[in-house]
Amino acid sequence: MNQPLAGFAPAPVTARMENHGNHMLKVAMQTGNDLLARVGSMVAYEGFIQYEPNPPAVRQVARDWITGEGAPLMKCSGDGLLYLADYGANVVVIDLNGDGISVNATNLLAFDAHLTWGVERVKGLAKFAGQGLWNTRISGQGWVALTSRGKPVVVDCGGGEDETYVDPDALVAWSPNLKVKGKRSFRAQSLIGRGSGEAYQMAFSGQGIVVVQPSEDSTDRLRVRG
């Protein structure tokens, strides 16, 4: 019975966060090293792990969220192995190592609770969305797990003068030090995005990366806050 299933067994733990296959996250939990994860993302765990939905640290940030930017989060604590997933989406694991990342809330799966995080305005896009667009920024020494609807592409902007253009509906995350601006595109309207209104792209420039998924999510990607 065990022989045909041996290839699906989890590998020995080598890092705080790891992929188990393409669609599942494995987290090595330790007392004192808590995790914030998307509510409902737990699929299995080993050991003794407790869950607290909407902990005080999340409520403090959420007081400033007028239209609910950010995913509903739970605090996970304890010792053992925790497995997370999001409806079969691909999982991308990132060791920030002192850097930061700006993430669409719909693509945020989990991150170390000690990291610095909050909601920030996406500069350079206010004229495209009235009051502006907002995203979740995470930084510090620790781990972050993102989801992607399909295998993503990671574009290195390279620090040159050329800009990288991305459909907002396919955007997952980007380096927060990149410069961002919007670009209207009437001629490309039939090719970019799925809305019937004026099409636009996000243009990135500078030194850093942009993570793009091969799917245009029909939900609000970057929410407008009035």
Automatic annotation (TrEMBL):
Domain of life: Bacteria
Pfam family membership, one: AIM24
Name this polypeptide is given: AIM24 family protein
Native organism: Streptomyces glaucus
Taxonomy of the source species: Bacteria, Bacillati, Actinomycetota, Actinomycetes, Kitasatosporales
